[in-house]
Amino acid sequence: MLVYPAVAAVLLWPLALPSGPLWLAAYWTVLLWGYGSASERTALIAVWLIAGAVPPVLALQRPRLALELSPPVRAMAGLAGQRLYGDLFTDLAALPSLFPDSTAVRQLTADVHRRLGDWAGARRLYQEVHEAEPENPDALIGLGGYYFYQGDYGTAVRYFRRAVAADPGNAAAYFDLSQAFSQQYHFGESSAALAQARALAADEVGAWIAHAGTDRLQVPEGGLARVGELRGQLLAVEQGRGSATRRMAEARRWAALLAAAGVALAALALHLVRRPFGYGGPGPGPGRGTERWLRALIPGYGAAADGRGVLALAALVPLAALLLLPLAPKVGHPLPVVFSPGPAPLAVAAAAALALVYLLRLWRELRAA
What we know:
With about 375 residues, the chain is mainly α. It contains 20 helices and no strands. It has helices at about 5-10, 20-30, 40-70, 70-80, 90, 95-100, 105-115, 120-130, 135-150, 155-165, 170-185, 185-200, 200-210, 225-240, 245-275, 290-295, 300-305, 310-325, 330, 345-369. α18 runs antiparallel to α20. The two termini are about 45 Å apart.
């Protein structure tokens, strides 16, 4: 009578561990691995390794995902797409607080002030960028633009000339220089500067002239051009937050991959030990009617019974996805959306989809009978 409790203890002891059902499933797959076909064994190993690789992969991607959903990146994306939204300036204000000494942040903020017509605020920031980076042509053009619109064309010419000296290939600097010369009635110098701009970017200069009534100057979006630099800084901040705690968490996640590899090695070792003694033959199979119901109700059963392990695994993927759908708000990353359906509608959708799947499976089996 003690045999049955002993057998139960041998078969069910993983339930005493944390996440017991998961370890129980892994333990049973180790015990049964040798009974499968080559395809089924390959599919099981693939499942173990994929399940072990998911946590470290998610851990590596989490900082980048958090970066993409962060307010500063949303603000920069809105500026790049020329989209204004309610929290744009609140989101953008996070950048100076994170990087108070960043020249790239100052230049981006200066571009925003200029877009809004606040040339006084833009000039102050362009001046700070110029002091930090004296050869920054976009900051020089921005300063020249401020003095141009103030009517101080002589000072504007000096800044545009410095921008040309800093970047001789900058067509916008030559174009703006020609506009400043024209305002001073220096038409010969204006024509020469415009010709140089045409030589560098003829199509763009033609478009600028066509819109000269509204945009007399061309001030490059130097701040937006440094978005990649800012994203790198933000990613470094995100990766550095709670680095000690994160390292411990990542170590635990990598342990999942090691555990999966250990399960695969345990299955192989047990198989090598048992193989010399042989495996018992298959027991009596279910009747024809029972077989039909099993094929209809258990996804992958038919493929597994035929020794096609990869197809059996593929048949389980949609079922697993539907069962996990109600848990999506908990297992996924929160997205900045206005409306979230919540778990109840997701559970209803998953139940309806499962019912449809099983109705189709039953219809197919009954039609094939």
